[in-house]
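Design a sequence for this backbone.
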């Protein structure tokens, strides 16, 4: 491991998450989508739709953080 690279930790991840506006939006969208799925949607199909959107937004945010980190290492 390179001496200059930092160890992964929560503050580093959160900083990377918010450095990119699309990543920040995806991460931020997962919270209200989850709330809608759990608290306000009553029909099973609506709960499933909002739950899938929350998972998709969360995964997309994580992927963007990973992708940006990988691109920075190769440059």
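Sequence:
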């Amino acid at each position: 491991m390179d001496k200059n690279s930092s160890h992964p930790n929560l503050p580093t991840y959160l900083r990377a998450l918010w450095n990119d506006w699309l990543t920040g939006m995806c991460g931020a969208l997962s919270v209200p989508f989850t709330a809608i799925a759990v608290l306000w949607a009553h029909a099973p199909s609506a709960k499933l739709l909002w739950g899938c959107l929350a998972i998709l937004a969360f995964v997309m945010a994580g992927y963007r953080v990973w992708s940006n980190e990988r691109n920075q290492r190769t440059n």
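Residues 66 and 72 are 10 Å apart (CA to CA).
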